[in-house]
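Title: [Solved] D-alanyl-D-alanine carboxypeptidase DacC 3D structure

Original question kept below for reference.
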Amino acid sequence: MRRTSASLVAGALVAALAWASGPSSPAVALDPAAGVADLTQDLNQILSDSRLTIARAGVVVKSASTGEELYATDAGKQLIPASNTKLFTSAAAVETLGLDYRFPTTVLGAGRKAGSVLAGDLVLRGTGDPTMLAADYDALAAEVAAAGVKVVTGRLVADDTWFDSQLLGNDWTWDDETAYYAAPISALTASPDRDYDAGSVIVSVAADGGKVKVSTTPETDYLKIVNKATAGAETDVLIERLHGTRTVVITGTVADPYQEWVAVDDPTAYVSTLFRASLAKHGVKVLGGTATGAAPDGAKELARHESMTLGELLVPFMKLSNNIHAEILTKAMGRKVAGQGTWSAGLKVSTDFAKANGVQVINMRDGSGLSRRDGFSPGSIVQLLTAVRGKPWFPTWYAALPIAGNADRFVGGTLRSRMRGTPAAGNVHAKTGSLTGVTSLSGYVTSADGEPLVFSIMLNQYLSGSPKDIEDKIAVRLAQFTRAAAADAPAQLRSAAEGQAGDLECSWLKPVQC
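Solution (posted by the thread starter after getting help):
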């Protein structure tokens, strides 16, 4: 995983600890109500934007230190949160699983070993690790060979029973099925990169001597590639997996190299091909075919790989708004609490956690916010954000939120190109959310007085381009808020839409465009 420098991480944790304890009391104002009145007037003005005339807008701002409500409009209305759902999933996961939680992936021998021969099946068992790379499966195969196994008389069995067999969310749209941000959820999966986009393969095209050359990362023959593209003067190419199949069709023209992240149809079957190929590479011959099923009792462990901790995983998960991490953690919570690796069991854990922390309006249909049937109120989001400040894991969780204006992908995340050069830059720690007609931003900001504020902005049902700049104006105004006097006029903002599409999280756009 790509890392930030130790100083950046340390700085983020120090800031988080300060946030958890709260600063000293705000500067004494001559008329504290005047500052709040000015804030109300300015936020009302920002929200009077004509793009919101037919839309729904819910905004809540509270003092994190006193609980005072500084601003609210439609605080209790249920709105679509998009990826703000991940605030609930991530917090519940840390509370339930712990920051030190790891996903083990193991290889078991189900049979008697005589010399270099395993008389029985070789079982690959997963628990949902979204960080597994092809290289990690190769390392497991090398361990099997190092354990002295050269021939397996039985089958290669893929044990993905830690989770249930439902691969896609109930409310996910069919036209997202091949998109990597809606990849199937399995207890055995693989990522092509260190963003850990589990369940997907990178398909690359490049012009080569008048023809179009196609390659995949990792190398795999699992996908059937149908290459209809031609070399041309410009790159205008479509790489798309056909619905319900393993077939990827490439059409259009290619001048410059181009890549697309494509979800596989069945992560377990895909991983099985990767692992079988690695076994062969390391001299382990499996005589039988490939099957799926649970490892039998008494199977002996031959190799093991453990993921990074959940505390470390929070960084790519939250900074880059990774949907697959959210859904895997949801099923992992269900497995731990109820013994069932299902969406229903996991969502109950998240919902129960939210309610236990005072959340009133909540309807969770998945862990990531990809479902349009997810529903929260801005007041409920602020309640959650306020409640978790007292948790022992809060500093790590707070540091994992995207930070406005920080260009490093693993620090700024989905906010790295927003609010640069304003008082909100390096100050706002918040979760973004985007779907067509939906945008949200919820998190924390320190006012000009040094007062910690908690906020949630939810904009739904607009027909314009993305109004993320409205969110930015509100966040900047909160960073300027002072109880002592009226704040300066809102700073000029770099357009939130510059360099990115507005209907999806910018980190869902591959190659990264924000």
